[in-house]
Design brief:
The protein has a two-stranded antiparallel sheet with strand order 1-2. It is 65% helix and 2% strand. It contains eight helices and two strands; from the N terminus they run ααββαααααα. The longest helix is centred in the C-terminal third of the chain and has 35 residues. By secondary structure, the protein is mostly helical. It has one domain. Helix 4 crosses helix 5 and helix 4 packs across helix 8. A hairpin with a 6-residue loop joins strand 1 and strand 2.
Length: 175
């Protein structure tokens, strides 16, 4: 009987959502890994937010996942900026920087904004689910419209906050 000394990594097709899961959600298949069609893409497709606001939301999500969950996702065509290989200490310093960015956003935009970002980007809740959680006394359609408007405004504020941070960093580095 042959002894198996290793394992074969599963291919991308096998690591995707199951057939049953594919029936229950819309997925974006143009990026790796395959993701659920989120509220941010719905706002972007409707023209309620700009691409830069959607990108700001994606950056916040990446910082949140890296800071809290200790991993990061790289697209297939990612090119490393440096050849530095991180040890445990430098990896934790990078996580701390990501957590600092998340904390700065929470302090600038408020705890309610942070909760909406988490619900929208991390928990991947629909507008309807967010509406029923945030506005249980309102009808589902009114709560959904209200949450969609709040999320669009929040993503635009997040983009503006990041722009202010970039300008402040650039000015600080030039002095």
């Amino acid at each position: 009987m042959p002894v198996q000394t290793g394992f074969v990594a599963r291919t991308d097709e096998l690591n995707g959502p199951t057939a049953e899961r594919l029936q229950h959600s819309d997925f974006i298949t143009t990026s790796a890994p395959v993701r659920v069609l989120r509220t941010v893409q719905a706002l972007l497709h409707a023209g309620d937010i700009t691409q830069s606001a959607a990108d700001a939301g994606e950056r916040w999500y990446q910082n949140y996942v890296f800071g809290y969950c200790n991993y990061t996702e790289w697209p297939e065509n990612f090119q490393r900026v440096s050849l530095t290989r991180h040890d445990q200490v430098s990896w934790q310093l990078l996580r701390a920087q990501a957590m600092t960015r998340v904390t700065l956003v929470r302090e600038a935009l408020g705890l309610c904004a942070h909760q909406r970002l988490r619900m929208m980007l991390v928990d991947e809740l629909s507008f309807r689910a967010m509406g029923s959680a945030l506005f249980p006394a309102l009808s589902a359609s009114s709560a959904q419209r209200k949450v969609a408007a709040q999320c669009a405004l929040l993503l635009e504020q997040l983009e503006a906050f990041e722009e202010v941070q970039r300008k402040a960093t650039k000015e600080k580095n030039s002095n």
